[in-house]
């Protein structure tokens, strides 16, 4: 034994430190030594929190069971068929690695049942001071794998944990079962997938509802903007005034026309005053929309008067072939209002006589 490679044997297991390589060999295999707590606990607990206890347990149990072929062949299986002694020999070997103290209180080869008790198992020591608990899936996977090989049939190991004594204890009750870790994993994945689907549906429904609310808010704001951009004012009984300002485009003119026709019908208005004094610009498409407004008002039985028509707008309408024949025009809103009110009064007086 060199100073760089000290070695010893514990429970028939050779342990050798390759200090020159920074390696620890346990039973001839490269190993690493970690504190169960905090090192291993801090390493594994974030994974448990991320995937959930159930999925984590099954994943760990499956992984640990994959290495049981070598465990069984090298230590458990014996020429004389004494599986009990072979399992306890395996337990003594891995107890040297700090896995816990293994016992086999019961073993029935004919019934394919067994009870495995492990005092002070490393997984429970690791979790002792933490807030998160997930049991002993690593040891469970080992027990399932070894006894499925020993009994030459599928087995399962039910886990029972007792932390009330001086040291924690886990017992595994082994029995025949068609249940496999892979089947359990697949079933859990299906359940989680369906739950995720339901969660996504719920999120989509909530998102759709929020979108509808946003659309309603946008629509309300657009209605408010339209109302503010071209307020329709009842200036007299049966007389509506629509002051237009700024730039009048087709996109802006269409909702004005729609709202105006609705108001004329709902209020039984007989006169509408389109005040264009404040317009700074009117595109060609909007010019045609003005003619549409005038024609539509006539069909509803309302007279339309145009106020403040600029020379530029008048020229544009002539150039595109739009005529306002039969439509009264006024320079100021006051003039138009006096005329409309006068006509309304005379119409009212005529109905009374």
Name its key features.
single chain; 353 residues; alpha+beta; Muramoyl-pentapeptide Carboxypeptidase, domain 2; Transcription Regulator spoIIAA; 3 domains; five-stranded mixed sheet; rod-shaped
Sheet having the most strands: 5 strands, mixed
- Beta-strand share of residues: 15-25%
| N-to-C span | 133 Å
Shape: rod-shaped
CATH class of the largest domain: Alpha Beta
Radius of gyration: 45 Å
- Examine the coordinates and then state which fold CATH places here, giving the name of the CATH topology of the largest domain: Muramoyl-pentapeptide Carboxypeptidase, domain 2
User: By helix and strand content, what is the structural category?
Assistant: alpha+beta
Number of strands: 13
Main sheet strand line-up = 9-10-11-12-13
Mean pLDDT: 88
CATH structural architecture of the largest domain:
2-Layer Sandwich
Low-confidence stretches: none
Number of helices: 11
Whole-number total of structural domains: 3
What share of the residues lie within helices? Answer: 40-55%
H/E element string? Answer: EEEEHHHHEEHHEEHEEHEHEHEH
Short characterization:
The chain is 52% helix and 23% strand. The protein contains eleven helices and 13 strands. The strands form three sheets. It has a five-stranded mixed beta sheet, sandwiched between helices. It has a four-stranded antiparallel beta sheet with strand order 1-2-3-4, with no helix packed on it. It has a four-stranded antiparallel beta sheet with strand order 5-6-8-7.
């Amino acid at each position: 034994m060199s100073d760089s490679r000290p070695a010893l044997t514990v429970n028939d297991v050779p342990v050798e430190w390759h200090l020159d390589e920074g390696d620890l060999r346990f039973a001839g295999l490269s190993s690493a030594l970690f504190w169960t707590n905090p090192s291993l606990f801090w390493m594994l607990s974030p994974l448990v929190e991320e995937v959930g206890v159930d999925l984590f347990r099954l994943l760990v149990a499956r992984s640990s069971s994959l290495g049981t072929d070598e465990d069984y062949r090298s230590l458990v299986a014996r020429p004389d068929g004494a599986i009990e002694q072979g399992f306890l020999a395996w337990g003594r070997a891995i107890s040297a690695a700090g896995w816990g103290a293994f016992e086999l209180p019961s073993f029935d080869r004919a019934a394919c049942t067994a009870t495995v008790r492990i005092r002070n198992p490393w997984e429970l020591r690791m979790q002792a001071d933490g807030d998160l608990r997930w049991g002993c899936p690593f040891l469970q996977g080992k027990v399932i794998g070894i006894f499925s090989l020993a009994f030459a049939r599928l087995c399962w190991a039910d886990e029972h944990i007792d932390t009330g004594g001086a040291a924690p204890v886990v017992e595994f009750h082994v029995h025949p079962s068609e249940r496999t870790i892979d089947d359990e994993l697949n079933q859990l994945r299906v359940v989680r997938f369906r739950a995720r689907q339901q969660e996504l549906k719920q999120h989509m429904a909530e998102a759709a509802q929020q979108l509808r609310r946003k659309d309603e808010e946008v629509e309300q704001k657009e209605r408010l903007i339209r109302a503010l951009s071209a307020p329709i004012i009842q200036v007299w009984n049966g007389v509506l005034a629509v002051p237009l300002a700024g730039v009048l485009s087709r996109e802006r003119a269409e909702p004005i026309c729609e709202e105006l026709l609705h108001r004329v019908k709902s209020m039984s208005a007989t006169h509408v005053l389109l005040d264009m004094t404040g317009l700074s610009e009117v595109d060609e498409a909007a010019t045609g929309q003005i003619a549409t407004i005038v024609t539509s008002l006539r069909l509803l039985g309302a007279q339309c008067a145009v106020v403040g028509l600029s020379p530029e707008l008048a020229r544009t309408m002539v150039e595109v072939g739009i005529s306002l024949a039969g439509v009264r025009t006024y320079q100021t809103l006051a003039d138009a209002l006096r005329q409309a009110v006068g006509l309304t009064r005379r119409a009212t007086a005529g109905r009374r006589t």
